[in-house]
Amino acid sequence: MEFDFIIVGAGSAGCVLANRLSEDGRHQVALFEAGARDTNPWIHIPVGYFRTMGNPATDWCYRTEADPGLNGRAINWPRGRVLGGSSSINGLLYVRGQPQDFDHWRQLGNVGWAWDDVMPLFRRSENWEGARADVETDSDVRGRGGPLNVSASRVSRPVIDAWVEAATTLGYPRNDDYNGEDQEGVGHFQMTMRNGRRCSSAAAFLKPARKRRNLHIFTGAQTERVIIEGKRASGIRVRRGNDLVEAWARREVILSAGALGSPHLLMLSGIGAGGELQQHGITVLKDLPGVGKNLQDHLQARPVYRTTASTINSETRHPLQYLGIGLEYALRRTGPMAMAASLGTAFLKTRPELETPDIQFHVQPFSADRPGEGTHEFSAFTASVLQLRPESTGHLALKSAAPDDHIAINPNYLATKTDRDTLVAGIKIARAVCAADPVAAMITGEHAPGPSVAVDDDAAILEWARNTATTIYHPTGTCKMGSDPMAVVDARLRVHGVEGLRVADASIMPVITSGNTNAPAIMIGEKASDMVLEDAM
Predict the structure, then answer these.
(1) Which CATH class is domain 1-138+198-296+394-413+475-537?
(2) How confident is the model at residue 371 (pLDDT cuts 50, 70, 90)?
(3) CATH 3.50.50.60 domain range(s) in the chain
(4) Residue 474 falls in the annotated catalytic set
(5) pLDDT score recorded for residue 162
(6) Which of 16, 105, 118, 18 is nearest to 525 (CA)?
(7) Can you tell me the distance from the alpha carbon of 528 to that of 245, in angstroms, rounded to the nearest whole number?
(8) Out of 318, 447, 474, 496, which one is annotated catalytic?
(9) Is the pTM of this model over 0.85?
(10) What average pLDDT does this structure show over 379-391?
(11) pLDDT in tens, 282-310
């Protein structure tokens, strides 16, 4: 098998690349995905993440190593293993990040990645269904007519609206479009949804391109390594069932296997920290010590409040309720089945002297210990809070040279004082909002952290977070872009020292973006496709 471009991984960025590189018909493009086609109906129902996370048919089911910052706990790290990747199992939340995030990338030396450079790419991807409060501003910042549908929620709950109003009574500004030029404020989430169905990267970018004769999509095809000849990537070795096959790239191999998959493949291919590779008997082809380092993620603490209001907890207790919910979705594409992972949000500052928000809220009209295990038996909502730009970085490490062995994930959460102080401050803000009307009038008690954790006891609050906080599924940074000794790719996403090989996914972020990472990953796919086509001319 020989193609012009080989893309490994049909996730958020990989589907964009497959679409854009095959668009003009000049190039033969192959897309290899380890998972299956996205035929599982729960993928396309927004609330289906409760069924797809933790399901080995759609999720790689990663699990971290014991983490000191979490008092030695190991936690699950879901990652999509299906066409669409994590965009097929995520919570549908669309957050570009702060303009300052991308300006910071540029300040680190990455030419072409400032906000003014990437904002047109966000617009190109997007079909924004939201109302235009200011036509001129909206047309400059939000996109219309792109393949990725972004919409307001089809679901509302009074307790979420009351939480948003309570936050504004404390002086936090209202912001009806956090994806504009200013992220700060309180409002409601935007989501990747079209007509009540998930608009994954596969649905948005891959489905319209499937019938192109120059696009070849292989599922159930796990790439085991990149084939390097001399100093050039010439192809990949792939396992399909019991067969090992090789595919050859006339121009480039592009890794879009995600922040865990892409560095893992580089290591298996002999690209990484030389001493670490040699420990597993892997021949070192390029000593790049930054592969798998600089791991960043958003850690969420999850305060839960019992309420007299109707929530998903109370609306899903009896079989007849499920029947009604199913009928509402089938007839109108509304109701709980059309709900993203969160409804309310806020991007706030823990200290007034900060230039931009440093915490984010995900406010949900339900409470659960984890996806897939069902909601609590009492009516409750969750006011999840996370630190937007953690200082702590972790790393990935090989367990063996066997491709089937998952990479060892060491997140290193809460390793710095800033991270610990910020998360505690965020939890305090969550409690303060829930003590303000009108939401306070709907609350009957705090389930977590609970009354045993005093509101002014920072040590106890931190200990509760260490014992209960979990990932919000945003791993990034493990093949970071830059020119310093720990950088893996340059500003054009080319792997340092290896010709014909790029990485294009959330792993290239030098610093994690301020919010959910699906939208930036799609933008990275757009940016990469432009650069690949420019270099192919």
Answers:
(1) alpha beta
(2) low
(3) 1-138+198-296+394-413+475-537
(4) yes
(5) 98
(6) 16
(7) 27
(8) 474
(9) yes
(10) 98
(11) 999 999 999 999 999 999 999 999 999 99
